[in-house]
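User: structure tokens for this one?
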Amino acid sequence: MLEENKVKIAYTVVERNKDGRKFWVRVGAAFVNRDGSLNVRLDAMPVNGELQIRDYQPREAREGASRDQAA
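Assistant:
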């Protein structure tokens, strides 16, 4: 099993509405090598050419953070 701190998620941020709202779209994953470099595996290519690489967070942690911010 992979260590959570070694797994990252690749997103692209796109504007879909005329009101300027931005959406984060998951397009792949990245894996940290021993030397700190990344291997990125994309399931889709971002048409804007930009990627955001973020630490992986399990669904439970993301949902808990959303509830905490809403309170």
